[in-house]
Amino acid sequence: MPPRDRLLAVLVALLWGVNFVAIHFSLEHYPPFFLVALRFLVLAIPTVLFVPWPGVKLRWLLGYGLGFGILQFAFLYAGMAAGMPPGLASLVLQASAPFTVVIAALWLRERLTVVQGVGIAVAVAGLGIIAAERAGVSALLPVILTLFGALGWAFGNICSRQANPTSPLGLTLWMSVVPPIPMLALSLVFEGPERIWTSLVTSFTPEALPALLGLAYTVLLGTVAGSGIWVTLMKRNPSSRVAPFSMLVPVAGFTSAWLVLGEVPSPGELLGGAVVIAGVFVATVAWRPRRRLPADLVAEEQAPAR
Questions:
Q1: SS3 letters across the chain
Q2: CA distances for 210 relative to 22, 23, 126, 200, angstroms
Q3: Exposed/middle/buried for residue 294 (C-beta within 10 Å: 0-12, 13-18, 19+)
Q4: What is the pTM of this model?
Q5: What's residue 288's pLDDT?
Q6: pLDDT in tens, 201-233
């Protein structure tokens, strides 16, 4: 990856790390499934009216919307509503990085070098250190729900790469058209119309202001800016090189939760964050492409189109 892409990947990690605090405030007012529907509905309406079609096959758009939009956020928001702290949620969700690498290797036949594998293993070890520190304060169900969200994110990563859009931001915006109706249906079934209506009619009260600000941050910075940049990076680079940068999100997540919500990280969590950064460095910055032999080039030319 060129230096500019690495800096952009770090910026996305920062935006997404702070996003967990924004989600926390929004969930204090809105029920989780309805919040997912509302989050994407705010984007879907202007997208359908003003944004050109991104020039992708419908199946990859639907796959991206299903994985990134529905599965990731339905499980993540449900997990946070069930008691997953924002900092810990930002950690567990980063299981999407190894999930993405594994899916890319199995589905897209992307090659994983030894150095990349070691870097990812080091980063995962850092996540394990942090998880061990927080294991005593979180119930199992929120963690499981968030892990399912990470798997959904990984599936969305692969679909966005396969889509190969002419406009990555356009793909991100059109992806928002997929989740609202399914998530509203889930909200009506599991949360009920009364709870939905109450959250709506009280949206503009002073007590709901943090929730509205959190929603605005999630839509504009977390989704439009963050996801748009991420899809661009996934288009320009192999998934196995981009995905490890998502492991920096817990560092930003723990830091923002500490500054805003008073979630003070322990020394073990700080150590784990340092190990995560080291693993990302090894897997991406320190990576060098291996010398390609003529046989490799011939094999690629003879490979069937996907």
A1: CCHHHHHHHHHHHHHHHHHHHHHHHHHCCCCHHHHHHHHHHHHHHHHHHHCCCCCCCHHHHHHHHHHHHHHHHHHHHHHHHCCCCHHHHHHHHHHHHHHHHHHHHHHHCCCCCHHHHHHHHHHHHHHHHHHHHHHHHCCHHHHHHHHHHHHHHHHHHHHHHHHCCCCHHHHHHHHCCCCHHHHHHHHHHHCCHHHHHHHHHCCCCHHHHHHHHHHHHHHHHHHHHHHHHHHHHHHHCCHHHHHHHHHHHHHHHHHHHHHHHCCCCCHHHHHHHHHHHHHHHHHHHCCCCCCCCHHHHHHHHHCCCC
A2: 8, 10, 32, 14
A3: exposed
A4: 0.81
A5: 47
A6: 999 999 999 999 999 999 999 888 888 888 788
- The residue with tokens 């693993």 is 279
What's the pLDDT tens digit per position in 14-71? 999 999 999 999 999 999 999 999 999 999 999 999 999 988 999 999 999 999 999 9
Please tell me the distance from the alpha carbon of residue 247 to that of residue 91, in angstroms, as a whole number. Answer: 8
* CA 155 – CA 45 distance, rounded (Å): 25
pLDDT band at 135 (very low <50, low <70, confident <90, very high): low
Closest CA to 223 of 68, 57, 21, 48: 68
CB distance 120 to 283 below 8 Å = yes
Residue 65: HSE in the Cβ half-sphere, 13 Å Cα cutoff: 25
Amino acid in position 244: P
Query: Measured between alpha carbons, how far is 244 from 123 in angstroms, rounded to an integer?
Result: 8
Q: Residue 246: how many CB atoms within 10 A of its CB? A: 27
